[in-house]
Structure formats: C-alpha cells, structure tokens
Amino acid sequence: MTRDRPYRDRRAAGRALAKEPALHRPGPPPLILALPRGGVPVAAEIADALNAPLDVFLVRKLGLPDHPELAMGALASGGVRVLDAALIESARVTPEELAAVLKREAAELERREQRYRQGRPLADVRDRPVIVVDDGLATGFTLRAAIGALRRAGCRDLTVAVPVGAASSCADLAEEVETLVCPLRPHPFHAVGLWYDKFEATSDDEVIACLAHHLDRHAA
C-alpha cells in the first residue's frame, strides 16, 4: 500500500471493506454475491469476516466495438441488460455491431455461469439480506445490471459494497439500493486499477478455488 494507492491488492481491499460498520448488521448473516472475476477475492474477505456464505453473480460488460474497455452497457444473469443509449448513438454503434457484442458477451456469461456454478442454483434472495461486491465502481453499468437482475429475483434488502468508486457513480447507484458502502471516492477517479498496487486479472481457477473453499466451509 502506498499513499497514492490505498490498497495493496484485492484481498487487502476486501479486508479493509469488511471493517465498514454498515456491513455488520444484527440478524442472520447476509448472502455475499461477488461479481466475477475481480470481485471474488474482495468478497471472500468480507464473507470470512461476517462468517457468511459466498457465491457469484454473473455480469458481463458490453464494450464499444472499437474501444472494448469503455462500457456501453452490461448483461446480467436472468437476461437483464442495461444500455447507455447516448453513448451508443454518439459512438455510432450500428444495430449489427451491438447485436454482435450482445451475442458474444451472452455466450461468455453462459460459459462462466456453467464453469463457476457447476450446476448449483443461486440461493433464494427473496427473504434475506444480500451484499453484492466488486473490486471497484467506475461507470456502474455492471452493478446496475446486477441490481436489476436481483430485484427481478425478488431481493428487497440489497447492499452494494466496493473498496473504491467514482463519486458520481456512487451517488447514482445509492439511489437504487438500500445501502451503498464505498469508503474511497477519489476525484479525479480515472480507473479502478489506479487505486491498487497490484491489479492483475483474476483467473477462472482462482474464482473456482475460492468458491470451493467457502462451499466446503459452510457445508462443514
């Protein structure tokens, strides 16, 4: 950890986030849902701290055809999609290009759903608190898609927890959930990875190993 980069890595960010008082509520432990892949190591630390079950919730960013790192929307499990119509229009994305991106990302979402969940259904979210975790909040499209899908599934007590986020996105997203926890809201923000010393891509194997560890722990 350095002065300019508050988090050493995602695990350290998760441990810091787990200390936030808003995540420690009386009652039964919440269901912790991580957005793969980068949200998983963050969420694992929160699940450990709260002695709560951990699972994944699948979301895919829809990148612009010529600039895939820039989100024009997102897809989530359950067929929910969120689109930035203004960006799509200004970037002159054609219907054919949009359809191609949607098809590609839907296929990747399905691949990850099968590999990570391995046939396990998502736990019922209707009558329990749920905490959705990611490694950061930039535009908010992926989290907004996740929120929409979880609301559709009947979730009524939803918290979003991220270690770092753009202040404007945090303010917007806070209107859509019961609680938003984001201890670091730097300005200017630029990108999530700038606030970590180590921000390497999380692998599929790391996600699967982390989920297996927590499943075994709670089964025991």
CATH topology: Rossmann fold
Largest sheet: 5 strands, parallel
The number of helical runs is: 7
What do the pLDDT scores average to? 92
Rg on CA atoms, Å: 17 Å
Low-confidence stretches: none
Percent of residues in beta strands? 15-25%
**Structural domain tally:** 1
CATH classification class: Alpha Beta
Describe this structure in words.
By secondary structure, the chain is α/β, with parallel strands linked by helices. It has one domain (10-219): 3-Layer(aba) Sandwich (Rossmann fold), CATH 3.40.50. It has seven helices and eight strands, in the order αβαββββααβαβαβα. Strands 2-1-6-7-8 form a five-stranded parallel beta sheet, sandwiched between helices. Strands 3-4-5 form a three-stranded antiparallel beta sheet. Helix 1 runs parallel beside helix 2 (39-50) and helix 2 (39-50) packs parallel to helix 7 (204-219). The protein is globular, with a radius of gyration of 17 Å. The model has no long low-confidence stretch (mean pLDDT 92).
Topology of this structure?
Layout: H1 10-17, E1 31-34, H2 39-50, E2 54-56, E3 59-63, E4 71-76, E5 80-83, H3 85-90, H4 95-117, E6 130-133, H5 141-152, E7 158-161, H6 167-174, E8 179-181, H7 204-219
Parallel strand pairs: 1-2, 1-6, 6-7, 7-8
Antiparallel strand pairs: 3-4, 4-5
